[in-house]
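Hey, quick one: can you model this chain's 3D structure?
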Amino acid sequence: MFLVDNIFTLDPAAMRIFRKDRETDRILVSHAHYDHIPSRFNGKRVLCSDPTRRILRLRTRRKTIEPLHDSNILSLDAGHTIGSNMFYWKDEKVLYTGDFCTTGKYCGKARPKRCGTLIVEATFGKADYIFPDYGETAKELIDFVKDKGTVIVKAYTFGKAQEVCHLLSAAKIPFNVSPQVERVNRALGLRHLYYDPKATDVLVGNYALPGYTSVGVSGWAVDPRYRYRIGADAAFPISNHCDYPQLVDFILQCRPEKVYTFHGFAEEFAGELRRAGIDAQPIVEREPGQALLDDY
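Sure thing. Here's the predicted structure for all 296 residues.
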């Protein structure tokens, strides 16, 4: 069995999903966002990409992480962060997406894969969440930054911050980053051409400084109330997840016999899939802080 992203324990051979506290010596980490990092390693073997391993070392302060080698597991690009992976068990034909994005950006692109069982995230698994064209939204963000002059782009330290750095550098806009973002960039070996540690006009990170216009970047920004919730002057719907139509399209192209949904709107999304004739079941959090699921 495998502990998967500190979310649940998976027995792919029997296709059984259990709570995360089942005992196992093998861990899969799709990417190094905090909600996917195991709370304890305790010498267990970990399968992840090299960039994910670098951020795990940074965030857990563990110098060594014992690698897991399993020829039955195929690591696929998830397009969510630098180094993010989906995992596919070849013998059992099980695909686990982790958090993923099919848009195609600086960090790659997730592509559908035929499978028998699909375990898919549902962060934006509700028909309300339809993102505008990524290229157009990115251009609007850049135009906003140029127009305002002194701007703080509020972005998650790992993932969204690197995407914003990429967009600013591509637009030839000098920028500085918070110490937290700089540590992540350094761990990943990133060298953005227009990064300038002396720049003061455009900042990336969770700063709170007077005199600056603040802007948020998130898929949740499709809701116009989002910018008020984060205390920003503006917000742009740039996400490193799939929106609702992308989720549906991905599932249809994978052509699974069984779908399990997790995160976000897992129950609502599974219900929509069932109404469309797809055998779907949510992995549901039953108790706060306890990852997920009744035993199936």
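One thing worth noting: The longest helix spans residues 134-148.
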